[in-house]
From TrEMBL, chain A:
GO terms for cellular component: cytoplasm. This is Rhodanese domain-containing protein. Residues 459-544 form the Rhodanese domain. Residues 22-50 are annotated as: Disordered.
From TrEMBL, chain B:
It comes from Caulochytrium protostelioides. Keywords: Cytoplasm, Isopeptide bond, tRNA processing, Ubl conjugation pathway. It is found in: Cytoplasm. This is Ubiquitin-related modifier 1. One of its GO terms (biological process) is tRNA wobble uridine modification. HAMAP family: Urm1. Its main location: cytoplasm. There is a cross-link at G100 (Glycyl lysine isopeptide (Gly-Lys) (interchain with K-? in acceptor proteins)). SUPFAM superfamilies: MoaD/ThiS. The lineage of its organism: Eukaryota, Fungi, Fungi incertae sedis, Chytridiomycota, Chytridiomycota incertae sedis.
């Protein structure tokens, strides 16, 4: 293959196979065949002949390969390592919507013949129109894209967004319009979630995720293109107090956050400011992508906002998170990459094929199910039936405290962001208060000393056995309904009257246990906010956190 | 009447980890077919749902945070609880995902 040539990973007739989720309009076969011929003429003659496998198999293999690599490293550097790519560092993967071709553009390499560079083919919406720039906004300056969350989904969408916005350094007409890619996160890189948060590295454990992300993206873009995207770190927790001011500086927001209150807040802020919201979420084997409150299609009712779809928050017990419920590492990466792809037509054409539809990926029943969603609800307190711009109350949020709206407590420092508020604060006790409560310092006691060391109740670990096996406080024990407290007065004490302090992983299940024990007649049960995660933060930094 | 339905988003944990089921509904007659409301009650009452029914059904409908799809469309487009089931309809109960 000639040096620097583009690589075409297509089989004859590939363009006619149905793999393009973003495909908006049909294309007749004659035109397709003609385009095939044109493209064949353009492409270098040295490319290897594609094997005559069934297109569907090849399509599946290539997409699976690309998706797997995308999840591992972000779209593009990974392809440099792949067996199909002779592309050089800085290559750009293009999933071309009208014909679903995969093309690799090596935008770093000036050896590419000029005629073989640039966008080729129809745009998704207007026949024969050139691809508008994904960099330059109608204002004349660069687009401003904000990604909320630099975790697992952020690890999928940030590299793809950075590559998209950086574009081709040899296309000078866009040089002056430098896009902005903002990243919001208040967390630091941690070992236990690196399996999915592939933007971060072991070497950056403890570093702010926003700083780690920018380091990764700067390296990804390389010396020729790192100045072509303005990377902005917002190291803060998104709240109702700061969301509007922050979002006001952006054109589109990607929700890569990890909890329900933040998702309601992001949606409400986007509606209030008239911004489209690309929303991605993932747990366990599955992921969802959609565009809320996107540009209104001419022939369809206005698409819903998050509140239109979920007017009532789910019970806290059913809220899902990657930390609590687990997630297959590649799933958030895949979903994040899809979210970046969905943002593309929003920038280039101001249109959102995914608005009003929800794309659902399920690893165990593997296909992308794309379903039609309800239109915006006229009585929605945020968007009021999709009124644009600004929804029901332009520039204002319909709620002040999103944690309370979702039935959650504000997160305690050092604990997960998503805290259940099932029991009142008076029935909770911090680790530091265990001495006055139980007469012992909060340090591990040998199980063998129970109950002598715990004559009046004690600390109980209520996690399931599989988690207790990871590590626990040696003082944890099963709770007997009746026990001998060592006071020989002839009658066993009822355990129900003793003070018990319940701990779990993060302080959610322990609250449920408090409620359950109260229903059994226990009169003095409390739990520890933040649970063992908090224990690791304030008492024992070596305690295994998972 | 046979209805094919799928469960995902973690809801399958309430269904003994079954992700897809094909059930015959002993509901409705020649004249009146079963509705979505009756299907939801049937799923709970017939023991198809294995645990914690409050995490699936509340006040005759699904709990907040469950999206119901009827043949690949949001059930609000199809009449929600009043939708009359047809043979081989595909019903999907899918729990909202919040993680990232
Ligand atoms: Zn709305």
């Amino acid at each position: 293959m000639p040096n620097g040539a583009s690589v075409r990973v297509v089989a004859p007739g590939w363009r006619n196979t149905r793999v393009d989720a973003a495909h908006d309009a049909g294309q007749d076969a004659e035109q397709s065949a003609q385009q095939d011929a044109e493209l064949d003429a353009e492409l270098d003659a040295g490319r290897p002949a594609p094997p005559s496998w069934p297109n569907a198999i090849l399509t599946g293999l290539v997409l699976a390969h690309a998706a797997a690599l995308a999840c591992l490293k972000g779209f593009l550097p990974a392809l440099n390592d792949g067996p199909t790519a002779s592309a050089r560092p800085g290559s750009l993967l293009v999933l071309h919507p009208p014909t679903a071709q995969l093309r690799f553009w090596n935008t770093e390499n000036s050896e590419i013949p000029a005629g073989a560079k640039g966008w080729i083919g129809q745009t998704p919406f207007e026949a024969d129109a050139p691809w508008p720039s994904p960099r330059r906004s109608p204002r004349g300056d660069g687009y401003r894209v904000l990604v909320v969350g630099a975790g697992g989904i952020g690890s999928g969408c940030l590299p793809a967004m950075a590559q998209l916005l950086a574009g081709d350094p040899d296309q000078d007409e866009d040089a002056a319009a430098v896009p902005t890619l903002g990243i919001v996160d208040d967390d630091t890189v941690a070992l236990h979630n690196l399996h999915r948060q592939t933007l971060h590295t072991r070497g950056r454990i403890g570093v702010a995720k926003v700083d780690s992300a920018i380091a990764a993206l700067t390296e990804l873009l390389g010396p020729r293109r790192q100045d072509r995207v303005r990377l902005v770190a917002h190291r803060l927790r998104l709240t109702a107090a700061n969301a509007l001011a922050l979002f006001g500086g952006y054109d589109v927001v990607l929700d890569a956050s990890d909890n329900a209150p933040t998702r309601y807040l992001i949606s409400d802020a986007c509606v209030a400011l008239g911004l489209p919201l690309v929303s991605a979420s993932a747990v366990r084997w599955e992921g969802h992508v959609t565009i809320y409150h996107g540009p209104r299609p001419t022939d369809a009712p206005p698409p819903p906002c998050y509140r239109c779809l979920y007017p009532v928050p789910p019970p806290p017990a059913t809220m899902t998170s990657c930390d609590a419920d687990g997630v297959m590492g590649p799933v958030p990466g895949l979903i994040g990459a899809l979210a970046a792809l969905a943002t593309w037509p929003l920038l280039t054409h101001g249109r959102a094929p995914l608005a009003g539809q929800l794309a659902v990926w399920d690893t165990l029943a593997p296909r992308v199910r794309t379903v039609r969603l309800r239109p915006a609800a006229p009585d929605c307190p945020a968007c009021a039936g999709g009124q644009d711009p600004g929804g029901a109350a332009p520039g204002r949020l319909p709620a002040a405290d999103y944690a309370a709206f979702c039935g959650m407590a504000a997160a305690a420092e050092g604990t997960a962001s998503c805290g259940l508020a099932l029991v009142p604060p008076a029935m909770r006790v911090a680790w530091e208060q265990l001495l006055p409560r139980h007469g012992v310092a909060p340090r591990p006691l040998a199980l063998a000393t129970w109950p002598a060391a715990w004559p009046r109740g004690g600390v109980l670990d209520v996690r399931p056995p599989s988690e207790v096996a990871v590590g626990t406080l040696p003082s944890a024990a099963g709770l007997p309904m009746e026990c001998d407290d060592g006071v020989d007065d002839g009658s066993p004490r009822r355990a129900q009257t003793m003070p018990w302090t319940l701990v779990c992983r993060r302080g959610n299940d322990s609250q449920r246990a408090v409620v359950a024990l109260q229903q059994l007649g226990f009169t003095d049960v409390k739990d520890v906010p933040g649970g063992l995660t908090r224990w690791a933060a304030v008492v024992d930094p070596h305690f295994p956190i998972y | 009447m046979i209805v094919f339905y799928l469960i995902s988003g973690g809801l399958e944990l309430l269904f003994d980890n079954q992700k897809s089921l094909r059930i015959g509904l002993p509901l409705g007659t020649e004249q009146t077919s079963a509705t979505m409301k009756e299907l939801i009650s049937f799923i709970v009452d017939a023991g198809i749902l294995k645990e914690r029914p409050e995490l699936f059904k509340q006040n005759d409908t699904v709990r907040p945070g469950i999206l119901v799809l009827i043949n690949e469309a949001d059930w609000e487009l199809e009449g929600e609880l009043d939708y009359v089931l047809k043979p081989n309809d595909e019903i999907v109960f899918i729990s909202t995902l919040h993680g990232g």
